[in-house]
Structure formats: structure tokens, C-alpha cells
Amino acid sequence: xxxxxxxxxxxxxxxxxxxxxxxxxxxxxxxxxxxxxxxxxxxxxxxxxxxxxxxxxxxxxxxxxxxxxxxxxxxxxxxxxxxxxxxxxxxxxxxxxxxxxxxxxxxxxxxxxxxxxxxxxxxxxxxxxxxxxxxxxxxxxxxxxxxxxxxxxxxxxxxxxxxxxxxxxxxxxxxxxxxxxxxxxxxxxxxxxxxxxxxxxxxxxxxxxxxxxxxxxxxxxxxxxxxxxxxxxxxxxxxxxxxxxxxxxxxxxxxxxxxxxxxxxxxxxxxxxxxxxxxxxxxxxxxxxxxxxxxxxxxxxxxxxxxxxxxxxxxxxxxxxxxxxxxxxxxxxxxxxxxxxxxxxxxxxxxxxxxxxxxxxxxxxxxxxxxxxxxxxxxxxxxxxxxxxxxxxxxxxxxxxxxxxxxxxxxxxxxxxxx
Length: 419
Hints:
By secondary structure, the protein is an alpha/beta fold. The chain has 2 domains: about 35-205 and about 400-415, 3-Deoxy-D-manno-octulosonic-acid transferase, N-terminal domain (Rossmann fold, 3-Layer(aba) Sandwich); about 215-400, Glycogen Phosphorylase B (Rossmann fold, 3-Layer(aba) Sandwich). The protein is about 45% helix and about 15% strand. It is built from 20 helices and 14 strands. It has a 7-stranded parallel sheet, with helices on both faces.
């Protein structure tokens, strides 16, 4: 019965994506990217290649997997790396990722697709990142006895694995050779399902990734010129709820000699036009690239994907979006690694790194514009409090580095790959 419902879900998903593709650019890319996929795969991959296959749902999971990919590529340079994505946002941003030998979409989860995929690829090691549970792929990888790791996994009590109807997904956990969880709590939750499921507490590889970014970040002359020596408030991964609040903050703090840089989560023409109207004294980053002067602009809107993690270097303080709605806050680590305090909305408790950031004092929860303005003014006038919050943010990341090496050590110790 569960498999029947799963197949119905997949069928409805495909139909829905095809219909949505008629009027939605992202859905169009999702559908188009999977056309003639197996033919492209066969043309690209020669027989007897030694392949490590990494799969990520989207861009966020890619950033989690990236340190491990690059460590394995360096350690085992006789292997080739196949990288797959489920979502267009990941594929579009990383289709030219230099460390991967091939980048493809993952075909829809079907028994025939899984068998054909593995017949062509014949991976020596498969690594899925965080949240990917596709029944037919997992089943076939297990059946073929291919070493199979899940990294940076999280298991919270409110996830499907702990629901009365979650047995179908609980069974998938046995397909992995080993699971690397982010926290002790996730490990205990996983063990409560079945203590025989092999797992290790490795931590979150995002800490390693953001540390890599911070240690090699370079200045951006366009942003330097825009800021012109003034303090910057970096607002990353924002949604309309965040942006409405930020518009009020910008208007109320216009005499504080601040510059705001906003990087919205969704980059599309309609949303960007709305942002331009919401922030009348704004300029797009693409306009700066075309040598347009900022004039009297006090708000810079980042209208591209991929810059945000390096833009955080300019923050006096950062605001990480998503926390004003139930889905929750986005990646606070990208901001915290630069030793600058972080503001975030009240929906953050699903994310252990955000919880820890707030607990340590490096993150402060704000529910509305007045709370945002109050905390910002406190940091602007009280240097001791500001430095305390900034140091707490940076030290959180530093204390959690090392997940990548734990995963690589396991692969070496178990001899899952050979030079």
C-alpha cells in the first residue's frame, strides 16, 4: 500500500511539474533538464570509469557536501566525480562546478530509472547529502551492495520518520551503509528507531564550508564603492515578509549613515521589480556591473545567485531571512563566520545552529521593525555589547569545524575507495 501511494505521489508530481512548466520558468528548467538525460549520461561516461557519485537536492545541500567532495577529489584524484541535483536552483548555479567531472539532474525516482542509472554510472561510492530519500534509488544501491553514505543528516522528532505513517521511510534508513548526523540529538533520535542502524556524530559540514569561504574571501570593489566607508547591514535570503519589515527599518534609520544590502531568496523579474518599488533609494548589483553610479542609493539589491556568502564579509550586522514564517530561518553560519552579530526572525528552533547562535548571544531574535531598530541602535552605541555578540557568532562556527575530516577518515578506515 505504501509503495502504491508513493508511486501515485511521484506520478502526480511529474504531472504537476509538466503543467507548471507551461507558465513557470523554474518548472520549465526542471522538465527540460531531464529530457534525453540517459542518452547524455551514456555519451559522457566511458566504460570502467572509477566514479564517486554525490547527490544534492539543491544549492544549500551542495554547499554542505562541497567540502567533502573537494577533500575526496584531492585525496583520491584517480576517481571522477559525478554530481547530481533534484532542483533547478542547484543545477543552474553549479552546472559548471570545476571539481565535478559531470553535473546532471537526477531522473525521477522509478525502478527502471534507478537500474539504468546505476548500470551506466557504476559508482564505487555513493554519497547523498542531508535530506534525500528516493525509494527506488536507495533500494537499488543497497541491492547492488554499493557503499552508500548519508552525510550532514538531521532527524528531528517532528519529521516523517517518527510519524505513525512513516514506516515506509523508516525502512529506507537501512539502505545506507553509514549515516553521519549533525548532532547528538539527531543520533539519539535515529537510534530510537533502531539502534542497529550504523551512524556517527560528525557535525555539520557547512561549518567547514563557511570557514573555507571566510579564509579565502576577496574584496569586491563594486561593493566597496557603494558603501563608501559606511556601515553595512547585510540582509540575506530574504522573503517578502522580511522585506516588508526591512523597508520600514530602512525608512526609520535613514539618518544613521547606514547602507543596506539585500540578497533575496527568490531571484525573478517580478520579485525584483517589487523590491525596487519597496526600496525607492535602491540600485541593483547588475547596474553597478554596468558602471552605473549608485548616486544617492542607500540600498543595494543583489540580483544574482551565489554572491551572498562572500557579501557577508562587509556586515556590521547581518539579518538572515526566513525566520518570519514557519518554514524557518536560512543559513546563519554564512553570516556568523565573519565574527559579526546576526539578527533573525522567531521561527528558528528547527535549526540547531540557529538555536546555538541565539543561546550563545551571537544571534538575536527580532519579530518586527521596532525590535530590529532597537537592537541595531544598541550595537551602534554600545561597543562592548556589539563586540561580545560578534565574537560569540564567530566562535560558534570555529567550535564546530571538523565534520569533513571525520567523514573522510571513515572512508579511509573502511577502505571504501582505493588509490
